[in-house]
Amino acid sequence: MKICVVHVAPDDISSPFEGVRKVSRWLPTLHNLFEVLRSTGVIRIDTQIEYRPLSKSILSADETGPFGIDWEGERHTREVLRVMLQAEKEGFDAIIDDEASDAFAKKAWNVLHVPTVPIFYAALRFVSSLRKRFAVITVDAHGAERAERTAKEYGFADSATKTDPFMFVGRKLWLDSHENPELMIEPFKNVAERCIKNGAEALIAQCGTLGPLLMVKGIRKVSGVPVIDPVTVGIKTVEEIVALQRLYAPT
Length: 251
Hints:
Layout: E1 2-10, H1 18-26, H2 28-39, E2 48-54, H3 74-89, E3 94-97, H4 103-108, H5 119-129, E4 134-138, H6 141-154, E5 166-168, H7 171-177, H8 182-197, E6 202-205, H9 210-216, E7 221-222, E8 225-228, H10 230-248
Parallel strand pairs: 1-2, 1-3, 4-5, 4-6, 6-8
Antiparallel strand pairs: 7-8
């Protein structure tokens, strides 16, 4: 089984755009995540996972943000879908992207024939199946507000903690941690402890790079409360969908 994880930015460690440059230095962490999932038996031994970045041509000097992209705009969305469709053409059995806002995956449902799943949705559904009160820890205040709206849209908001269920670590810290992951550990734990004090029984690291970073660094629980990585849950979810698809496919 082959699963493609589409990284929703270019891979360029010398990029003039700070976001692209720093996150590109983190990308080997995705390879490390795949090995962690395989060595711990989370994914099947015969499952192959590859990540695919976007083309550098999508970057624009006219953009003022740290990624040189009109994030989730028409051009960005078109490029993510192009990479997904190319992976499908090359024979991948399932495809996800690592944007935890789920903006691209919801559009991919309409164009891909192979299984895909929005990773934040997959994480919320997983936590709901455990019947645990959750809190979400994301990058910044905008991300927290958006996570709250998305959780309501999916119908999971009632399972969140009653006090401050959508928290964040800070965008600058998040960006810097791609070059030095140790910077994130204690600040994340501090926010997590606040969520736990508010009644959280599960913590969703709602960012396509934050969750894998924590997984690879061995942060899978804080004070006994599980830290959920949406990328991990997304990979496992599509793996199971493909297995069931094969079981029930017409012969």
